[in-house]
Amino acid sequence: MKKLVIVLSLLIVTAFSAMAEEPASTIGNNEWFKGKVGVCMYSYRQLSSKNLNKSLEVARSTGFVYIEYWSPYKHSLQEYRSMVEKHGLIPVSHNFDFNLWEKNPQKAVQDAITLGVKYAGTAYLPCKGGHTGALTEEEVRHHAEVINRAAKMLAEHGMKFMLHNHSQEFAPYKDGKTMFDLLMELIDPENVVIELDIAWAVYPWKVNPVDIIKKYPNRIKLLHIRDVTLPPDGSRPCSVPVGKGVLPIKEILLAAQEAGVEYYLIEDDGNQPLIDIPETIKNMEEMK
């Protein structure tokens, strides 16, 4: 009986600890979609560059609990983390420059530890063709080696490597596959996860994010949620609030829930986040 009491006590403590770590969010909880919706602090980049503490205050007052770090600007990483925690926010992820993972992965790992994230990775894979060009097979194989080496180091500290896509990963490879498919074959499925940017997937290669999500269940753990319009001249997409662009947001979110996506991070690429982000939230919650 004494042992049972001890076990139950531990379970209760654990439950309350989990509740303390994950405060209730007012976002991402309607009849058809329930998910951990957060925000990428890149969205507030103009405000953050002037007053980082204020941008975190805005994120929390908007209803967010989960955030993805962006630049600390003039602050140290520890100062940044302290500000995040002061506002009751939970830091989920951070992207470092790929060059750091390649040249000094020990520093990247230590910085990830300092920031207290679950996922640490890179937002852009170097590509001779640029953001809208095509990765070569040689580049993909090299990048995969760097990623797997870094992921092994992160795993020793309970973290996973996070790979954020742009468009170059979806260029054609061979036999109907894309460079993204080749990457998925080469990277460690246990220690590397994908942060799928749904907007970059559609431009310029016109890949359906829903197809990607369904093809790789349980390997895509984070989504960058945003919407775009596609100019008729084929130029770079224009960022708009979710629900006002061309992306099938509801279909994407439903597929993501089925596929085991853990965090849904709103990323606003426009210049009026204080207007567009609340509209994005409203549109997501009112989708039928």
Strand composition percent: 15-25%
Q: Give the proportion of residues in helices.
A: 40-55%
Largest sheet: 8 strands, parallel, barrel
Tally of individual helices: 12
- Rounded Rg: 19 Å
Low-confidence stretches: 1-20
Which architecture does the CATH hierarchy give at level 2? Alpha-Beta Barrel
CATH top level class name: Alpha Beta
**What is the H-and-E element order?**
HEHHEHEHHEHEHEHHEEEHEH
Q: How does the overall form come out from the CA principal axes?
A: globular
| Structural class by SSE content | alpha/beta
Q: Determine the mean pLDDT.
A: 91
Characterise this structure.
α7 (137-155) links the parallel β4 and β5. The protein contains twelve helices and ten strands. It has one domain: Divalent-metal-dependent TIM barrel enzymes (TIM Barrel), CATH 3.20.20. It has an eight-stranded parallel beta barrel with strand order 1-2-3-4-5-6-7-10, surrounded by four helices. The chain has a two-stranded antiparallel sheet with strand order 8-9. With 288 residues, the protein is an alpha/beta fold. It is globular, with a radius of gyration of 19 Å. Helices cover 44% and strands 16% of the residues. The protein has helices at 2-21, 45-50, 52-62, 77-86, 98-103, 105-115, 137-155, 179-186, 198-202, 209-215, 249-259, 273-286, and strands at 36-40, 66-68, 90-95, 119-122, 160-164, 192-197, 220-225, 227-229, 238-240, 263-266.
